[in-house]
Design goal:
9-stranded mixed sheet; 9 helices; Aldolase_TIM; lipid biosynthesis; oxidoreductase activity; FMN
């Protein structure tokens, strides 16, 4: 079955590779050492720093290039965790940012922003969604151009199991591709690599992207999901698709290789919810029964893309409800990230723009070194060097 995931640009379905590096250990306990009984310690140094998934649009011809390998190698740190950019889970799971093709192993490709999602689908098919409601035209980041979006097609109830299966197959391909290509970045949608002892051993797991207006988020949020079947209406029904995906992926590759990213408080691409805390708590409790490795949650203050807002909400209730490793993301600097970990608010903190512009960010945090400033104008250009691999490191003698 041909599947297109998303209603508009930024509605592809996934987060890609997470790399882990030498120096960390893992036992049968899926919680970090800081949360295991009898161990009151917290991560030392800047071991709690994670690279958040960042769209960079630097792949050509559906193939990640050597500069992508260099980009991630630059950000490799002993005990570190890197999450690569979003990719699709099938050949039709294409949005404005990334597409994924399958031919034995998966390949990701960043794309430029189109004027309409239909342009990226085979035979001009409409993108799929939980709804058939169109998005309103939106002004692009340059403040001048206006993006318009094609009308999505509401998935039929009997089509949804096929989409769930795409996630399952993508997860399997991720693991198999990692075994065959231990250093390259063949990254299906929901791909991660966890922190283990051995570098360059391939892909160790997957992260399911259920945040930021991607397909799963469209089912979760009641301001988008207007379905009347078993996937719409009640909170339980709206979470059904996400949990079916988690079930399929954990059954395929094992719960200890699975994470998920969620943003219940965000309203990216008009995907908002009337009771985000209840949504986050429901998902946290429901995820516990699968025993997945981690939950990656976006802070309530990050309601809109790239903007921070004052809010009375907190991730604390959700973090307390989830029994695995917890990753918080969204607008953190060194000080509040360190505080969040030291107070038990989270186990790890994901950084985006600061890690983009500081490939040695954990070291800079550890020794309190000054940070490079990021350049927004180079975030999404196709140049393989400028704004990608040319941010300077600290001198070796610092």
């Amino acid at each position: 079955m041909a599947v297109v995931v998303g209603r508009r640009p930024m509605r592809t379905v996934g987060t890609g590779v997470v790399h882990h590096h030498a120096g960390a250990t893992r036992s049968g306990d899926r919680r970090p050492a800081s949360r295991r009984k009898g161990d009151s310690g917290r991560p030392t140094g800047a071991a709690w720093v994670v690279l958040a998934p960042l769209t960079r649009q630097r792949s050509y011809g559906n193939v990640p290039q050597p500069h992508a390998i260099l980009y991630y190698q630059q950000r490799t740190t002993k005990g570190g965790l890197l999450i690569a950019e979003a990719t699709g889970i099938s050949d039709t799971a294409q949005g404005s940012h990334v597409q994924l093709l399958f031919d034995g192993s998966a390949i990701f490709k960043d794309q430029m922003f189109p004027v309409c999602m239909q342009a990226f689908q085979p035979n001009g098919q409409a993108p799929i969604s939980s709804t058939n409601k169109s998005l309103k035209p939106a002004v692009r980041a340059n403040g001048i151009d206006v993006a318009t979006f094609s009308t999505p097609r509401r998935l039929e109830t009997d089509e949804i199991p096929f989409v769930v299966n795409d996630y399952r197959v993508a997860a399997r391909n991720a693991i198999e591709a990692g075994k065959r290509h231990p250093i390259t970045f063949f990254t299906p949608d929901i791909l991660i690599r966890n922190i283990l002892n051995y570098p360059n051993t391939g892909f160790d797991g997957v992260e399911i992207h259920g945040a930021h207006g991607y397909l799963i988020d469209q089912f979760l949020k009641d301001q988008v999901n207007d379905r009347s079947d078993k996937y719409g209406g009640s909170l339980e029904n709206r979470c059904r698709f996400a949990l079916e995906v988690v079930q399929a992926v954990t059954d395929e590759i094992g719960a200890d290789k699975v994470g998920i990213r969620l943003s219940p408080f965000a309203s990216y691409s008009e995907a908002a919810d009337s009771n985000p805390e209840a949504l986050g708590l429901y998902m946290a409790n429901a995820l516990n029964k699968f025993g997945i490795l981690y939950c990656h949650m976006v802070e309530p203050r990050m309601v809109k893309l790239g903007e921070k807002f004052e809010t009375p909400h907190s991730l604390r209730p959700i973090r307390d409800a989830f029994k695995g490793t917890f990753i918080a993301a969204g607008g953190y600097n060194k000080e509040d990230g360190n505080k969040a970990v030291s107070t038990g608010y989270t186990d790890l903190v994901a950084y985006g723009r600061l890690f983009l512009s500081n490939p040695d960010l954990p070291r800079r945090f550890e020794i309190d070194a000054p940070l490079n400033k990021y350049n927004r104008e180079t975030f999404y250009i196709s140049d393989p060097v400028i704004g990608y691999t040319d941010y300077p490191f600290l001198p070796s003698d610092v």
